[in-house]
Write a structure and sequence with these properties.
The protein is an alpha/beta fold. It contains six helices and eight strands. It has two domains: 9-146, Rossmann fold (3-Layer(aba) Sandwich), CATH 3.40.50.2020; 149-195.
């Protein structure tokens, strides 16, 4: 992570609005998946909400490990929790929070093809312009690092581990607050990290 990284910190309400938009796009496309597969961790909450909005209650989870920290990927994504339900002959909707490099989504899609899925579409909240796996349904293209509500503590901890210079740390925290992270949340997260 460099000092020039920008952040976007969406609120829960913004995320819900975006998921409403994604679900409307799915409905307008007339794509009717048999099952929704969430990519853990980031896609689990969006998967639950999309499941509710589309009234598709057959859901499953796969887990991919790729990032070691803020904007710091490993060399290759690794499927650490494969699909544990049958998708042979089924239409599948993959849900994740963002298509960043697209490598994780590519691994999940290939895994579902190998499991026999007949049609696969991808839905995310955000896509990066450089992604190699473009989502079929998404709400926003972004270049900044997105900090979702379900990963606030993880992001703060990564910043603390990455930088030793207090001034740089404070600059990063200032950018997070300006991007939308409530200052009281940052204070509380820092307190819990110091106590642990």
């Amino acid at each position: 992570m460099t000092g020039s990284i920008g952040y976007e910190v969406p609120t829960w309400n913004q995320i819900y609005r975006m998921l409403l938009g994604v679900s409307e796009k799915i409905c307008k496309s007339h794509y009717q998946p048999d099952i929704i597969v969430g990519v853990a961790r980031g896609g689990v909450i969006p998967m639950s909400i999309i499941s509710d909005l589309l009234k598709i209650y057959q859901v499953a989870i796969v887990r991919i490990e790729f990032y070691e920290g803020v904007a710091k990927p490993n060399t290759q994504p690794v499927l650490t929790y494969p699909l544990n339900v049958a998708v042979d002959g089924k239409k599948v909707l993959i849900i994740d929070d963002i298509s960043d490099s697209g490598q994780s989504l590519k691994v999940v899609k290939q895994h579902l093809i190998e499991k026999g899925a007949v049609e696969i579409k991808i839905a995310t909240l955000y896509v990066k312009p450089t992604t190699k796996t473009l989502s079929d349904f998404f709400e926003k293209t972004i270049t900044n690092w997105v900090v979702f509500p379900w990963e606030l503590k993880e992001t703060v901890q990564c910043i603390l581990q990455k930088h030793k210079d207090e001034r740089v740390i404070n600059d990063e925290f200032d950018k997070l607050v300006k991007a939308g992270l409530p200052e009281e949340f940052l204070t509380q997260i820092l307190k819990t990290l110091r106590e642990s």
